[in-house]
Amino acid sequence: MEKTDKLIGDIRRFTPWNEQEERDKAEILRRLESGEELFYRSNLSAHLTGSSWIVSPDRTKVLMAYHLLYDSWSWLGGHCDGETDILGTALREAREESGLSRVRPVSRGIYSLEILCVDGHEKKGVYVPSHLHLNLTYLLEADPEEPLRARAGENRDVKWFSPEGAVEASTEPWFRERIYSKLNAKLLFTAGS
User: Fold this and answer.
1) Which are the contacts of 26, defined by CB distance < 8 A and separation ≥ 6?
2) Radius of gyration in angstroms for the set of CA atoms belonging to the chain, rounded to a whole number
C-alpha cells in the first residue's frame, strides 16, 4: 500500500498540460484510490502501463519502434506486471524493446499521462478483450549512436526520427493528434524554458 500511496502522490503532484491530461488524471486517481487492482493484467478492464518518449540529448531525435500489434511506429512502453515503480517499468521496457543499454530519465517526474483504449486482440493464441491502459509517460534520454535491436515478437524495427517525423510515422490518428503531438509540444516548451 505504501508504494501505491507514493504513486498516488506522484500523480496528484503532476500538473496537467491540457484537458485530456486533467480528466485522465482524475480517472486514474479515482481508480487507484478505490483500491482497484491495477498493477496486473488480470484486471481485464484496465491496468497500469509505463511508456517513454525517448529523445536524443540535443532533443532533435525521438526513438520509435514499429509495433507489430498496432502495425505502426509508436513509442516504447509496456505493462507493469506487478511493478509499482512505473518509471522502472518504462525504463525496463525501453531497454527490452530497443536494445539500448544506456537510457536515463531526464526527470523522475511524470512527463505525461493518458488513458489509452486497446482493442481486443489475440496474444499467443489467447483472446485479450478490449481494455484500458492507464498510462504514465516519462521523458527519457539516450545516445542515438548506441546500437539498436528490435524485440522479436513485439516489434520489427527501432529507429530515430525527427520529433515531427515521429508523429508523421505513426499510422494511428488519435496517437498522432492527441499524444505524440502533445509530447513534442511539451518538449519544445521545456527546451524554451
Assistant:
1) none
2) 16
Q: 39 to each of 27, 43, 46, 110, 127, how far by Cα in Å?
A: 15, 8, 9, 17, 20
Task: Give residue for cell 497500469.
Answer: 48
C-alpha cell at 69: 500489434
pLDDT at 39 over 70: yes
Under the banding of pLDDT at 50, 70 and 90, the label for residue 191 is low
Handedness of CA 43, 24, 33, 84 (dihedral sign): positive
What CA–CA distance (Å, rounded) separates 22 from 60? 28
Full DSSP string of 21-68: HHHHHHHHHHHHHTT---SSTTSSSEEEEEEEEEE-TTSS-EEEEEET
Domain ranges of the chain: 2-192
Fold of 2-192: Nucleoside Triphosphate Pyrophosphohydrolase (3.90.79)
Q: Which three cell numbers stand for residue 173?
A: 490518428
pLDDT digits (tens, 9 = 90+) for 136-184: 999 999 999 999 999 988 889 999 999 999 999 999 999 999 999 999 9
Determine the 3-state secondary structure of 149 from DSSP.
coil
Q: What is the pTM of this model?
A: 0.93
Q: How far apart are the first and last CA of the chain?
A: 36
